[in-house]
Design goal:
Jelly Rolls, mainly beta, disordered N terminus, 4 domains, eight-stranded antiparallel sheet, seven-stranded antiparallel sheet, 487 residues
Length: 487
């Protein structure tokens, strides 16, 4: 019995030791599993975080890779967004999907903070600077501001060139619909936004000429317009209109452009411009949506004879803000609706008799009620691309080349307006177009030996310039004067 008991005790001890080892190994194995799962979960969360961050940034910025060699120094900032992280990113490569790297300067952004970021973009060995703001509506520009600027290949201020062409490229951005135009060589004669009034409620002209208007009849400002406020012209016996100076008489100009937004209320007779005696039957005038005839656009001369009737009145939108533009180059009249050249005809517009100019109807009977907004007059024929930017610069950036320019000084300035009534403009750019300098030596003749101590120098230039000459390979320079000689 004693032997059996001892054997049993030994067996029991061995069994206990084995169980203890199993429990220890089980605990260690459980600890390893827990540690592995913890590490895996941490890496999974980190991976999801970076994946979402990269996806969000890629969607927000959506860089275009066309023509881009490198983009660097991008700083992202936010306003009204809680929990964003301010980061500086450098992007290298030609494709928008290339890896973003070199992340630094992390800063939490609260809903009360705002910042603006800049990055430089190298395109064809030229640099451009952009400013964007990440806000409540996505990718915004400059804290909801309207921005307009000249970009390459636009010449810089103080340019001097021999080429007779000037190419202007305008970059404009707004969080709202906006239009952009260029005042080239003071060609903008009238810019009446219908927002700006004097103390009498008359609309003001924002061009350099300040051709302010005078409202007539029942013409009155309407707080609702295509771009903020507009002017309303009631129908029938009010003879409503806006009187303008005679300098804006289109029928006496060889080249001109008239641009405006119109919203018709009635179904016929929408006279939008008139010059001459002031009476509709003895003036040149333009009307749209002439259901009575019926044409979309009608031009008449001072004898009430129709110069042209274009299109069908049924094509003109009813009770909707519509952009219309008319251009004339002395022999061709073109009508644009919502940025598109809709109708065109070769014709000659005779000069009307009289000096009165109106926008809006002045006929005391049967004119429909309608609204006008953003009225501009140029003394040049705008190109189709310029009309598109006047209609919608959000989708059509301004780009135009001015060719066959005369020698001398030239100026230009860009403007943008958005649908909230905000206005932005660039600095005035001044420059000179002149002949390239040409110098030709008449005497002495090149590569000929002379054995006299006195020599006459004779050169010809195409400009009034001073000329220097040297006798010792540039060690000493002499200024050549008219009819002067030296030994």
């Amino acid at each position: 019995m004693i032997i059996k008991y001892k054997f049993h005790c030994c067996y029991r001890k061995i069994f206990d030791k084995m169980n203890k080892k199993r429990r220890i190994k089980g605990k260690e194995r459980n600890n390893e599993i827990v540690m592995f799962l913890s590490i895996f979960l941490i890496f999974l969360l980190i991976g999801i975080y970076f994946l979402l961050s990269f996806y969000s940034l890629n969607n927000l910025f959506n860089f275009s890779s066309a023509g881009v060699n490198a983009i660097s120094g991008l700083i992202i900032s936010g306003k009204g967004i809680t929990g964003l992280v301010l980061q500086e990113l450098q992007v290298e490569g030609q494709n928008s999907s290339d890896l973003m790297e070199n992340v630094s300067q992390e800063t939490d952004i609260t809903s009360n903070e705002s910042a603006v970021e800049n990055f430089s973009e190298e395109i064809d060995n030229s640099s451009k600077t952009y400013s964007y703001l990440l806000g409540d509506y996505g990718l915004l520009d400059g804290s909801n501001e309207l921005n307009v600027s000249f970009v390459y290949p636009s010449p810089i201020n103080g340019f001097a060139q021999s080429s007779s062409s000037i190419t202007v490229n305008i970059s404009s951005h707004s969080n709202f619909d906006h239009y952009t135009f260029l005042d080239f060589d003071n060609s903008l004669l009238l810019w009446m936004r219908m927002d700006d009034l004097n103390a009498s409620g008359d609309p003001l002209d924002l061009s350099n000429y300040r051709y302010n208007g005078s409202k007539k009849g029942g013409a009155v400002q309407n707080p609702s317009g295509a771009y903020n406020s507009s002017f309303n012209f009631p129908s029938f016996a009010t003879s409503a209109g806006i009187s303008l100076p005679s300098s804006l008489k289109l029928s006496s100009m060889k080249n001109w452009t008239l641009s405006m937004w119109i919203k018709t209320v009635g179904e016929q007779y929408n006279l939008i411009y008139l010059d001459g005696s002031g009476s509709y039957d003895s003036s040149f005038w333009i009307s749209v949506k002439e259901n009575n005839i019926p044409y979309e656009v009608v031009l008449t001369n001072h004898n009430f004879d129709m110069i042209a009737g274009l299109g069908s009145s049924s094509n003109f939108p009813y009770n909707i803000w519509t952009h219309v533009a008319f251009t004339y180059n002395g022999s061709n009249f073109t009508y644009y609706r919502n940025g598109v050249a809709t109708l065109s005809q070769n014709l000659v517009i005779p000069t009307s008799v009289g000096s009165k100019v109106y926008i809006g109807g002045v006929r005391p009977d049967s004119w429909n009620e309608y609204n006008l907004d953003e009225t501009l007059i140029f003394n040049r024929t705008l190109m189709p691309s310029e009309i598109l930017s006047l209609f919608n610069a959000s989708a059509n950036n301004y780009y135009n080349s001015f060719d066959n320019l005369s020698l001398g000084n030239h100026t230009f300035k860009a403007y943008s307006v958005d649908s909230s009534g905000n206005r932005s403009e660039t600095a005035l750019i001044r420059g000179l177009i002149g002949n390239s300098l040409e110098i030709s030596a008449i005497s002495p003749i090149e590569n000929r030996k002379y054995y006299t101590s006195f020599q006459s120098f004779n050169v010809s230039t195409n400009r009034n310039v001073s000329v220097n000459y040297t006798l010792d390979n540039g060690i000493t320079n002499y200024t050549m004067l008219s009819n002067a000689s030296a030994t």
